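1st attempt posting a full record on here, be nice pls
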Amino acid sequence: MTPEQVHESPRDWVRRHIREYVETEGRKGHRWSGVNTLLLTTRGRKTGKLRRTALIYGRDRDRYLVVGSAGGARSHPSWYLNLRADSEVHVQVGAERFDARARTASARERSRLWRIMTSIWPEYDRYQARSEREIPVVVIERAR
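the predicted structure (as tokens):
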């Protein structure tokens, strides 16, 4: 059986970032604009196809954190809507690849995790200020 095709982000610059990341096992692409990035693969909630994007990440102990900012857009990014429909995801951090579960941070934990992420990428505060939606923090935990 052949592996399932993974579809990259529709944005050209993100697609180039992903291609470089994958081709170099993260030696190029893991570090982007002074921050670390990971590759997140979700299953499309409408198409059922695997979708991959690159995201800035933070850490909270052994968990990975990402933010569904879409630059402060009115609606959530597709990757976030996908993982809300199916929490099983695949992650690549540098050369390491693993299956994981992703969930939206609870209201109780969001403010602490938000501070972690804004310390890494302060733009998130600006994105939130111009958005009417609450930008979600996503917690990614390795599948056991």
